[in-house]
């Protein structure tokens, strides 16, 4: 009987030790795990640099990796700080993301492994840093400001696929390009209506001199867009070369425009 009690006591201590070690490992997970997750989800396009803290509470800047072991070039201004609740171990997600230089507000992410809700906010991105994402942006050489805002944003996993619902706005202000002597070219707005695996897109111009307009859809990963580009009155000659690079000329009533077609 004593031997049975002794064996049982030993197993209790072994199990206690295993649980203690497991919890210690979980609660001191390195923040680099998030970097690996980000790289996997973006297929290596984005990475974390100067990672500090732990998986549960830490900070880093988000950037573009220059190679498998190369340095990470910051893409956004400032550092992103995160907090992740231990409730994630019970399949409940409660997390916060903050960056006073790039985010308009603290972003709260709540839900579970099947469905997530993201609180409204906007993200500011210096457009010239987009060159780090490669062609064709490094050829266009964009400058200006890009602000992305969202509302009623929800992600849900269905049959292994990630679907999104909500409204997304992308505002490009005072845009310019090294390909054109006209600076700025204009300010534009793109509105996305996300519904599951599909999305509707509407593009319009807030101010010129280069005018853009059109609409498109994303269905099952296939993007289609139909739009046009044209110059404000008096700017046709200065914008002719840039407009010719965008597409084929056509008549839209009495106006010459450039067809923007993606199918």
From TrEMBL:
A Pfam cross-reference name: T2SSN
Primary location group: membrane
Transmembrane segments: 12-38
Alphabetized UniProt keyword annotations: Cell inner membrane, Cell membrane, Membrane, Protein transport, Transmembrane, Transmembrane helix, Transport
Subcellular location: Cell inner membrane
Similarity comment text for this entry: Belongs to the GSP N family.
Name used for this protein in its record: Type II secretion system protein N
Species of the source: Undibacterium rivi
